[in-house]
């Protein structure tokens, strides 16, 4: 592996930090990847079994670990929460650089997996029980955790996208049905504005993953990458599809139809509660996030609904995804076969899955849940009893074909955020921002040792 390629991933993690705010055999039962299994958050009761160290941050991780350990007579999981998202990634990067200290199994967001594959930090688990669980997940779910033909994670949850909207705002301004196309979306936005209504949506520069998904929906293929040829990468973020999407959103901004507030901020949440935005382009995990942030529990209770994501071509609809996590086996594990049993087994039992979706912690990708009457027909409280899974999210998850992510995703997101900010500020058109982003990514990849094809 070219040293520069590894440095590319290190640099990307450093950028992620800016954006976001033990021995190899230590511990009871013979732990794996350098993490100390004697400091488990959970209690290991089957002390005669091998122990696999796990880093993860799901809110109900304690239940998930206990459920796995209670039902498994081959291996036990020792869980530590070293921080969520970027906090964990920073620690993992430190362990990669040091060559020690990583756990056997680590929870990763799907779009970060390639970042660690390029550093040879993860294990291909396709030979460790993949065939036994392959049928439990869709083609799209597996593609998101795979690079080329190799599988680097066991999928758990995802973010099939839809259009959340304020049913009270729609009713007030005479929008009887949610927009099914992006042309209808702009027309409805103009209608609401002309009547003195609120912004129709929001273009937050801090959600580049959303706009990557929307360009893919329009036909873009931003990255092509295969670890079989690790120094080659295809980059095309300024194709016609990408420019169409960015020019479209730039037009919404310039006409004052959508806002430019960063999402996941107190100001944005306040706007959601106050009805400042008629729609929210988001994913299946959003109801849980919004509920946790206090949306939908006061004066705005019962005022949210969800519809399928608008399309560019209703005759050829495309489902896209935002978010999702998996459990991966690290290259520092001295027991990859046992580690894979844990990776594939965590969040795979009925009790953990049910607790996850009922409490809006995850949107599960396991087909045993996605096809169950209880899940499909669930009446979602945040959406005032709407059967959101049946009407929107399950069809979107079933139709999703998966993405190919960049091996330097964090650098890409940071650069894309700058491009979106330039659009918001009126400094560049969508097409101009796309061209500049393309050049920046090609230059960066070349500097890091990749051979770039466009």
Automatic annotation (TrEMBL):
<dbReference type="Pfam" id="PF01547">
    <property type="entry name" value="SBP_bac_1"/>
</dbReference>
<feature type="signal peptide">
    <location>
        <begin position="1"/>
        <end position="23"/>
    </location>
</feature>
<dbReference type="InterPro" id="IPR050490">
    <property type="entry name" value="Bact_solute-bd_prot1"/>
</dbReference>
<dbReference type="InterPro" id="IPR006059">
    <property type="entry name" value="SBP"/>
</dbReference>
<protein>
    <submittedName>
        <fullName>Extracellular solute-binding protein</fullName>
    </submittedName>
</protein>
<keyword id="KW-0732">Signal</keyword>
